[in-house]
Amino acid sequence: MKLTLSWLKDHLDTDETLEKLADKLTMIGLEVEGIEDKAKALAPFTIAKVLTAGKHPNADKLQVCTVDVGDGGAPVQVVCGAPNARAGLVTVFAAPGTYIPAKDFTLGIGNIRGVESRGMLCSAAELQISDDHDGIIELPADAPVGAAYAAWAGLGDPVLDINLTPNRQDCAGVHGIARDLAAADMGKFKDPAIKPVKGEFPCPVSVTVEDSKLCPGFALRLVKGVKNGPSPEWLQKRLTAIGLRPINALVDITNYLTFDRSRPLHVFDAAKVKGNLVVRRAHDGETLLALDGRTYTLDSSVCVIADDHGVESLAGIMGGELSGCSSETTDVLIESALWNEINIAQSGRKLGINTDARYRFERGVDPAFMLPGLELATKLVMEFCGGTPSDVVVVGNQFADDKIIDFPLAEVKRLAGIEVSLTEVRRILNHLGFAVAGQAPVVKVAVPSWRSDVHGKADIVEEIVRIVGVDKVPLTPFERGDAPRKPVLTQMQTRTRRAKRALAARGLTEAVTWSFISKPAAEAFGGGQAELALANPIASDLSDMRPSLLPGLIAAAQANADRGSPDLALFEVGQVFKGDLPKDQFMAASGVRRGVASSAGLGRHWSGSAQATALDAKADAFAVLAAAGAPMAGLQIATNKLPAWLHPGRSGAIQIGPQNVLGYFGELHPRVLEQLGADGPLVAFEVMLEKIPDPKQRPTRAKPALELSAFHPVSRDFAFIVDRKVAVADIVRAAQGVDKKLITSVSVFDVYEGKGIDPDKKSVAIAVTLQPRDKTMTDQEIEAVAAKIVAEVTKKTGGSLRG
Amino acid sequence: MSNLANLQSQILADIAAASDEAALEAVRVGALGKKGSISALLATLGKMDPEQRKTEGAAINLAKDAVAQALAARRDVLKAAALDAKLAAETIDVTLPMREPSAEAGRLHPLSQVWDEVTTIFADMGFAVAEGPDIETDDYNFTKLNFPEGHPAREMHDTFYFNPKEDGSRLLLRTHTSPVQVRTMLSQKPPIRVICPGRTYRSDSDQTHTPMFHQVEGLVIDKGSHLGHLKWILHEFCKAFFEVDNVNMRFRPSFFPFTEPSLEVDIQCRRGKDEIRFGEGEDWLEILGCGMVHPNVLTACGLDPDEYQGFAWGMGIDRIAMLKYGMSDLRQLFEADVRWLNHYGFKPLDIPTLAGGLSS
Question: How high is the ipTM of this complex?
Answer without folding.
Answer: 0.89
